[in-house]
Each structure stands twice: as C-alpha cells, then as structure tokens.
Amino acid sequence: MAYQLNVDSTGLERGIKGSFAFPVACSKSSTNINDYDGHRFECHFHPEPELTLFLSGEMYYQVNDRVLLMHAGDAVFANSAVMHAGWQSDDKDGFYRTINFSPVMISGHEKSLIEQEYVEPYVGSERIPFLVLRADSPTDRAALDTVLEIFHIRDTVDEGYPLLLKAALCRFWYHLYLRAKSEQPQKSPGAATVKAAISFMEQNFDEKLSLDDISHACGLSRSELCRTFHPGQSRGRRHLFHLGMVQQRCRPANADGRSR
To answer: Whole-prediction pTM value?
Structure first.
C-alpha cells in the first residue's frame, strides 16, 4: 500500500513526533520515495525540526521555495514549521532516513542559558530555515559526520541510547549555530507565509481573487508569489489545487513572475 502523509488544510502534519518523555522520532528503517502515493510526499510542516539523510539513489527535496536534487550521502535539515516536500527524480529510487526532535532536547529546561542564547534565536527563524549538507563539500564534512553519527547511534546502541543521541544532537546543533552566525539570513517565504496564502485562498474560494489580493494577504510581491507556487514547486494534490489558483493569475503577469 502506498504511503500518504496525514496533513490538515494548512499543510500541518498531524500527530506527535516522539513522546513527552523522549521527544525524538527516528526509525531504524529507510524509506523509498517511490513507496509514496504518486512517488512524492505532500508539501507539509511540523513543529519539530527534521534531519534527513539520503542513503542511495537521488530525489528532489523542497524546503520553502528552494528545490534541491539530493544524492546519496547528502543531508538536509528543515527547521521547525518549515514547509518541505519530496518527489522522485527521473523514475529513480531515492532511499532516505529521517529523525525528528523537539528543540527541548538541546535547550533543556525552560529559560536556560542554552535555550536563550543557542536555541530560541534559531528555531524556525529566518536565520537558518534549512541547511543543506553535501557529501562532496569539505565545508559540510564535520556537520555531515555528526548526522551520520546520529543514525549510527540509533542503529547500534541500546544501553544509554537516549544519552548518546542527545549528545550527538547537541553537537549537530552546534554546527547549525555556527553556520547561522556566519551566514546572512535566508530570504525565502517561510511556512507562515505559504500558510497565509493557502488559508486566504481557501477562505475566499467563491470569490474572484486577483493576484494582488493573494499577494497582499500573505505579504509577498506578485513575482514572489508566482515563484513560490511555480509548477516546479507543486507537490501533492492539495498543493496542486492552490498552484492552479495562483498560476491562473500569474499568466497575465510579467515574465519574471513565471520564471524560476
């Protein structure tokens, strides 16, 4: 039976990752993108950050408005509440594994020094909505090795597994923190922006909405809105519906509004 994500009308994936006692979800098995209905998973988000390690083959992965071709050995981090989706590349298999975790695994108790200085400023913020790690990049090697260690701990450790996994997640967050401090904030539509556009279209389904109406509702320019709902960005039945609504209005717009 083909997989399908359980998401609501805004793209929020229903359910809780992990438990209150140990807010981490990481299975030992891999997933093939071709096992999903339509060989893709819906554009969605969730409150828990997510790390994805690509094991073999290749596949497309979208974070906010960025579309990436991911290969074996690459990894990507999607921050809290960041829209992401995935689909097959040229009928190829694409095997990957994910781990979702609550930021409390890093910050510890509420209002701690770690939470205030190293976690809260970087969770779901524009500072680093996502991080792409390439297997052939020397710059990414240290962070990528930590990702590999995280999954190795999951596969091989029984006694003390929560302690070692927490330590490895903290080391990864350290690399994330350093990258966020060294780079300019990434200017791309976040989950809140995309959700605002989708919510406005659903609430005004019977109205004759213009491109200006939708762009004003979500705070994007006309060209940014068209790029965000570009045909190449559409993943999943619900997103296809909203794509059609926007693209019908993008066609009369300037060429920049339709181009990547």
So the answer is: 0.76
- Helix-helix angle 191-203:237-250, to 10 degrees: 80
Query: Per-residue confidence at 3, pLDDT binned at 50, 70, 90?
Result: confident
| Model confidence pLDDT, tens digit, residues 178-205 | 999 887 665 555 556 666 776 677 677 6
In a domain, 161, yes or no: yes
Average pLDDT, the chain: 83
Q: Which residues pair with 58 in a beta bridge?
A: 71
For 93, phi then psi, to 5°, come to -70, 155
Residue 251 lies in domain: 191-257
